[in-house]
Design brief:
Layout: H1 21-30, E1 45-46, H2 58-65, H3 75-88, E2 92-96, H4 99-110, E3 116-119, H5 124-132, E4 136-139, H6 160-174, E5 178-181, H7 194-207, E6 211-214, H8 218-228, H9 237-246, E7 250-254, E8 265-269, H10 272-285, H11 296-308, H12 312-331, E9 344-348, H13 349-352, H14 362-374, E10 376-377, E11 379-381, H15 383-386, E12 402-406, H16 414-429, E13 437-441, E14 452-455
Parallel strand pairs: 1-10, 3-4, 5-6, 6-7
Antiparallel strand pairs: 2-8, 7-8, 9-12, 11-12, 13-14
Helix pairs in contact: 1-14, 2-11, 3-11, 4-5, 6-7, 8-9, 8-12, 12-16, 14-16
The structure holds ligand F0G.
Length: about 450
């Protein structure tokens, strides 16, 4: 069969409120042209994030009813821990309420004022948590990543030569952790190859630097390796995942992505002393080490989700349904990052709106227009998100201006995606009339969440 079907049936639905263009014009103006400030019920198709927005299965809901809410040593904790250990393989598992809490604890223990943390591309919270601890976050993604037209399968790879240069110049003394984000969310949701993970691990270990994976979308990354990397055609995603984690000393994980949970995360390491220091902070900020800010039922949902997300029929559908949107856009001549990533579609706003200069935020302007056109909510990943130095307040263009349409897992059908395609095409046809934006108010850190904008005349 050529038709890729959703490998599930829907037995509970949530109505979508339909709005008019006139209403949306007013609502986005009231939100100061920042889609984060909209009310979710005023959105028709919400592609703001794939984080915590997944549909859980009947199995996961059933498991939630079995949640053991004991404060210490709950049954649900052991189920969660054993599942994480089986797939991720690390000796120490620390539950947190979401991914950034894991980052905050990890960097709080490991990062000082002169610390450098290289990554393929840091996600916003990862970068902000490092900078908050006084460290420097460095992005070293491979050169192919900058070319949105290149169809290289592993554009999330680290630039190995650049990493070696940095390690030679700074050494283990300053580089406290080397990280790889799988898949590379801020870099277009692109996958990292096993060969690259292996190389980065070798460089880190030769220099005596701990190597961590930011594992949010590890299953999608594993499926890309399965589909595209020679030698892995016959290896099931779970074994690919185990091999990836086998090269690392630890990981941070947001269970809000590749485990279908609405909340949750964890931090792993093989280092018992480090884990002890991390647990000390965990108790202060998250909770006792057997629940870490989560209810027992959340631990159960994650344990089920981590198994389901590695099912090949699901991963096939997931990757192919994202590719469906990307390839249609490409066929329409619309600038989109290729090849398709797993969790999201990334429009290249600089090429979509070449008449808007980066410091007038073409990505933000495009996100605003998609909302006005059809009630589609998405997020700028570009100069608004990364263009401001929080310490000096200086602004410069980010290396790309993208708009991310993240696809919640198992939530929208193909007809929803056809609607999104039509909306993007309508905005594309009237692109010449779209104007840029200027910021009227913004906080020091993570400004994209709350910044206020107005239209440039
Ligand atoms: N790392 C990556 C690569 C992420 O994409 C995210 C979250 C985090 C860490 C933090 O995890 O949200 O559980 O605290 N990304 C979401 C997104 C918010 O929309 O891409 P969290």
């Amino acid at each position: 069969m050529k038709t890729i079907i959703e490998p599930f049936r829907i037995k509970m639905v949530e109505p979508i409120k339909l709005t008019t263009r006139q209403e949306r014009e007013r609502m986005i103006e009231e939100a100061c042209y920042n889609p984060f400030q909209l009310r979710a019920e005023d959105v028709i198709i919400d592609l703001l994030t794939d984080s915590g927005t997944s549909a859980m299965s009947s199995e996961a809901w059933s498991a939630m009813m079995r949640g053991d809410e004991s404060y210490a040593g709950a049954r649900s904790w052991y189920r969660f821990r054993d599942t994480v250990t089986d797939i991720f393989g690390f000796k120490q598992v620390i539950p947190t309420h979401q991914g950034r809490a894991a980052e905050h604890i990890l960097f709080g223990v490991m990062v000082q004022a002169d610390s450098i943390v290289p990554n393929n591309t840091h996600f916003d919270t990862t970068r902000a948590n490092i900078e908050y601890c006084g460290g420097t976050a460095v992005d070293l993604v491979c050169s192919e990543a900058g070319d949105t037209e290149s169809d290289f399968a592993f554009k999330g790879n680290m630039d190995i030569a650049a990493l070696e240069k940095l390690v030679a110049a700074q050494g283990a003394e300053h580089i406290t952790i080397i990280m790889l984000t799988i898949s590379n969310n801020s870099g277009g949701g692109q996958a990292v190859s096993m060969a690259n993970i292996r190389e980065v691990s070798r460089i880190a270990h030769d220099a005596g630097i701990p190597f961590y994976l930011d594992a949010c979308r590890f299953a999608e990354n594993a499926q890309f390796i399965h589909r595209c990397e020679p030698g892995y055609e016959n290896t099931p995603p779970i074994d690919i995942a185990r091999e990836m984690f086998g090269y690392a000393d630890g990981c941070t994980m947001s269970a809000k992505k590749d485990s279908f949970a609405n909340i949750g995360g964890f931090l792993c390491t093989n280092d018992a002393d480090l884990a002890q220091r991390e647990r000390n902070i965990l108790i202060l900020t998250e909770g006792f080490p057997t629940y870490g800010g989560l209810a027992g039922r959340d631990l159960e949902a994650i344990a089920v989700g981590l198994r389901e997300v590695l099912e090949e029929s699901y991963l096939d559908y997931r990757l192919l349904s994202t590719r469906y949107v990307v390839e249609h856009l490409h066929d329409l001549g619309i600038p989109v990052v290729r090849p398709a990533g797993g969790h999201a579609v990334y429009l290249d706003a600089r090429r979509f709106l070449p008449h808007i200069e980066p410091l007038q935020y073409p990505g933000q302007a495009l996100a605003v227009e998609l909302y006005i056109e059809a009630g589609v909510r998405c997020v700028e990943i570009g100069t608004v998100m990364f263009g401001s130095n929080p310490h000096t307040g200086e602004e410069s263009p980010a290396h790309q201006d993208l708009v991310r349409l993240a696809i919640p897992r198992r939530v929208y059908t193909q007809s929803h995606m056809d609607y999104v395609l039509e909306a993007i095409n309508l905005v594309w046809e009237r692109r010449a009339e779209i104007r840029g934006l200027r910021i009227t108010e913004a906080p020091q850190f993570l400004r994209h969440f709350t910044a206020k904008f107005e239209r440039v005349e």
